[in-house]
Amino acid sequence: MIDLSRKSIVSKFLDGLLLNILLRLKGVVYIPILVTFFSKSDIGLLALWQSIASLLMGIYLLNMPDSANRVILNYDKNNEKKLVTETISSIFTVSFIVFSIVTVLVLLAYYVFPIKQESDYFIEVLLLLVLSNILSKLSIFTFQIFQKTKLIVRTQLLIEYGSLGVVTAGVFLLEVQDIKFVIFTYALISITVSFYLFRLLYREYRFRIEINSKILKKILKVSIFLLPNAYALVIIQNSDYLMIKYFLSLVEVGEYSFAFSLSSVVSGLSMAITFFWYSTAVYANEDQITKMLNTINMYMPMLLLVLIFVYYLSTKEIISLINSDYLSVFHVVQVLIIGLYCNIYIQVLSGALYARHKESIILFSVLFGAITNLVLNYYLIQKYGLLGGALATTLAYIFILLIQYNSIRKVLIKIDTWKGNLMMTAVILISLLFVTFNFLKGILWI
User: Fold this and answer.
1) Hey, where are the domains in the chain?
2) In 3-state terms, what secondary structure has residue 341?
């Protein structure tokens, strides 16, 4: 059962927040190591691998783990453990089959069609990263659904700080200069931790090779909406890198990756919320979820102002401390934080819409945002470089937020109050003013 008490929700949020604070602290050490021991093109190659791996994840998993949330929780409510086990088994079995087929197709496409290789063993490294991401998602999604937050915190910290320790030792003691070492280290530690989680899961649910077609149909009905939605979000998050690589070079991809890393403290708040929110929203009734949304809404403008104040005053000093060669991305960071901040509330609204079976609204909003992002990226990156990519991403998030907020007002009538609407209007106005200011300043900088 999911505990909906305020104490439990705060505890789970704090677990997620702690994890993301510690991950950002890791970045304080990790980013200087990367920019000191590897070139901008190396960092760009690393970002390229990660972006393509993210794009492939939707094809490999069909978004089944996330789509199974409501199905598994409904079985759990009715104390049908056998059906929960069959759901997990079906997802694992289908994922293995799809992985085998898609990997063969990817390899055939890569070796049959002449594609420029950015690095030796480019496709092999990419597929290793994809494999580690798939195993990580499959091993942890059940624990995420049942909100085993402390276990998730421990295992994710083991992966992140374990890979940090090995990479640090490699560059300082062994003088490793190959960026592939970073991927190998992360992938191998991640795979090891995934097998540990599989073992824990097996103790509770004796999963096996089987496919329950009835359960699978339920999951795929949700996945029909959530898979395009997940892909659209991935496009928004990663198309910048691919277009920057297309129009500019790996050096600029490396600079943009650096800017995104500095901005990602904001996305950490989003991750802290999604840590527990979807399962909570599914279990909550309409009055409970409305009360939570109204409370969140009241604090959004104040939190945004604090974020802007802290970032604007500290970013230059942080960049100078890490590597002053990256000072040119200052305004890129300022624009990106607004988009990532909007994504915090998007995750909250998406969870509420998902719990009310409104996947079609989520899909429409995110597809609209993705198309907007692609079109704006195409024109703005050519003209304004990295700043154009940041603007395209942020505007896409703002559009998604507006669509979902307008929709949730119709789904949950009690959220449609003058105070709530005033708070959302304040968030949008502050966001647009700050983005416009930094975009214009950035153009003058260029």
Assistant:
1) 6-445
2) helix
End-to-end Cα, the chain, rounded Å: 55
d(CA 369, CA 395): 8
Q: How far is CA 350 from CA 20, 340, 414, in A?
A: 21, 15, 17
pLDDT (tens digit per residue) in 93-122: 999 999 999 999 888 887 777 666 656 788
pLDDT in tens, 135-145: 999 999 888 88
User: Kind and range of the H or E element at 252?
Assistant: helix 250-274
- DSSP string covering 282-294: HHS-HHHHHHHHH
Question: CA angle 428-430-432, nearest 5°?
Answer: 65
Residue type, 275: F
What number of other Cβ atoms are within 10 A of residue 133's Cβ?
Answer: 22
Cα 379 to Cα 243: distance, rounded to the nearest angstrom:
10
Q: What is the dihedral of CA 235, 241, 247, 249, to 10 degrees?
A: -160
Rounded Cα distance, 37 and 179, in Å? 9
Q: Which two tokens stand for residue 382?
A: 């050519």
pTM across the whole model: 0.71
